[in-house]
């Protein structure tokens, strides 16, 4: 039942029915918690954060993500390198993006760096690219243009390998838009 509520929450969110997604996510968190499924709780909290974010409630989204990361980092959720690594890196990447919205650029850098350094399963190329782009935006906001450029150069290399022409163009444009290193 808990997984069904979580899948419903994700589907509702994809349909733009964010209040219904929020309710379904809250129900999934409760059901997973009562069942003692910590990985399920964390995934439902990530779903909850997405609903809060879609509703413009960024502080609530951030709180749900921080709770998800705490649950997943608890040894009871599973060992490092287990399947729990995937939601940890995703939650940290989303945390970085929310910090950017909230203009908490230092916190965005910290969250993105933590995602990139999470031990265990390697990040997928799209997740690594997304995280590096978030960190590059934060570095740019902080005035660290060389760090922003380094992260965008890393994204460029990832996108050359996976032949993502659309993102390649976007990253090249971002690199051109950066001020010259001083």
From TrEMBL:
<dbReference type="InterPro" id="IPR019734">
    <property type="entry name" value="TPR_rpt"/>
</dbReference>
<dbReference type="Pfam" id="PF13424">
    <property type="entry name" value="TPR_12"/>
</dbReference>
<dbReference type="InterPro" id="IPR011990">
    <property type="entry name" value="TPR-like_helical_dom_sf"/>
</dbReference>
<protein>
    <submittedName>
        <fullName>Tetratricopeptide (TPR) repeat protein</fullName>
    </submittedName>
</protein>
<dbReference type="Pfam" id="PF13181">
    <property type="entry name" value="TPR_8"/>
</dbReference>
């Amino acid at each position: 039942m808990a997984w069904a509520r979580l899948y419903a929450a994700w589907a509702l969110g994809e349909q733009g029915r964010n209040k219904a997604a929020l309710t379904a996510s809250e129900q999934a968190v409760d059901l997973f918690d009562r069942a003692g499924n910590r990985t399920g709780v964390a995934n439902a909290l990530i779903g909850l954060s997405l609903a809060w974010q879609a509703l413009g409630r960024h502080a609530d989204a951030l709180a749900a993500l921080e709770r998800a990361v705490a649950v997943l980092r608890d040894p009871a959720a599973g060992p490092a390198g287990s399947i729990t690594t995937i939601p940890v890196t995703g939650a940290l990447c989303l945390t970085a993006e929310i910090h950017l919205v909230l203009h908490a650029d230092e916190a965005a850098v910290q969250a993105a760096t933590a995602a990139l350094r999470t031990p265990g399963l390697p990040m997928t190329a799209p997740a690594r690219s997304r995280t590096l782009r978030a960190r590059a935006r934060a570095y740019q906001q902080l005035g660290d243009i060389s760090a922003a450029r380094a992260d965008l150069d890393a994204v460029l290399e990832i996108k050359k390998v996976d032949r993502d022409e659309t993102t390649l163009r976007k990253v090249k444009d971002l690199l051109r838009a950066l001020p010259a290193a001083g």
